[in-house]
UniProtKB/TrEMBL annotation:
Record's protein name: gamma-glutamyl-gamma-aminobutyrate hydrolase
Catalytically driven reaction(s): 4-(gamma-L-glutamylamino)butanoate + H2O = 4-aminobutanoate + L-glutamate
Source species: Rugamonas rubra
Gene3D superfamilies: 3.40.50.880
EC number in record: 3.5.1.94
Top-rank EC class of the record's enzyme: hydrolase
Described purpose of this protein according to its UniProt entry: Involved in the breakdown of putrescine via hydrolysis of the gamma-glutamyl linkage of gamma-glutamyl-gamma-aminobutyrate.
One biological process term in Gene Ontology: polyamine catabolic process
The family this protein is said to belong to: Belongs to the peptidase C26 family.
Any one GO molecular-function label of the UniProt entry: gamma-glutamyl-gamma-aminobutyrate hydrolase activity
Record-linked CDD domains: GATase1_2 (cd01745)
Amino acid sequence: MPSPIVLVPACINQIGSHPYHTAQLKYVDAVASGAHCMPLIVPALGAATDLEALLDIAAGIMLTGSPSNVHAGLYGQDVLDPSLPQDPARDATTLPLIRAALKRGLPLLAICRGFQEVNVALGGTLHQAVHAVAGMHDHRENKHHTLEQQYAAAHRVLLEADGALSRILGGAGEIMVNSLHGQGIATLAPGLAVEARAGDGLVEAYRVADAAGFTLAVQWHPEWQLAQNPDSIKLFLAFGQACRNYQSKSGRGA
Ligand SMILES: N[C@@H](CCC(=O)NCCCC(=O)O)C(=O)O
């Protein structure tokens, strides 16, 4: 069977004098080495994206993290801190792509910003600054720390008993995760089912309840040093297997 193609939507980033379509290496490599699939970086072309052409060749989609925020206008709010990075071209590409991919039953794995944008794509809202909400913890990384420290395990999450994530992780009730986000889920979109929460109650993982295939979105970073984290290995293996199953069922597996 040819390797299943997993779409990895790009960000737009300024490098020197020019804007680039970019995808961070750790995400792209995790699709290859963790899910054993072929990553395909999708440019952030917005409305010019041919969604059906992409979905005709894809067997999965992975939404990456990124320092930028999903634009608050997309969930009916004003941007509270305009100094934080935005990526309207990524928003204009991923939101329609997410909806079209789910309609086809494509396996989906979403991480950090990706976790937030799937929620917004399906009608949910975000806290623009989780740490400013009474009773919530500060989920941000300390930018003065080394990368190793920033991506180290930061807090535990409690997994839903008998949930999809818990099953993938061998029946675990809780796991330790890293934490590098200022925003978080305020209202979960209709049709999403909670899979894990942090100690302050913040949703840390969910699935699309009535999806035809595998869907999991996590607020943490399983792609970070994937090979050293048994939970992350299991998560990416399960995603990869779902992509292989989708490819076989769609008749493209020969
Ligand atoms: N802007 C959002 C998204 C946070 C996020 O995805 N952080 C990861 C950035 C670096 C990486 O990709 O590893 C927020 O702050 O909530």
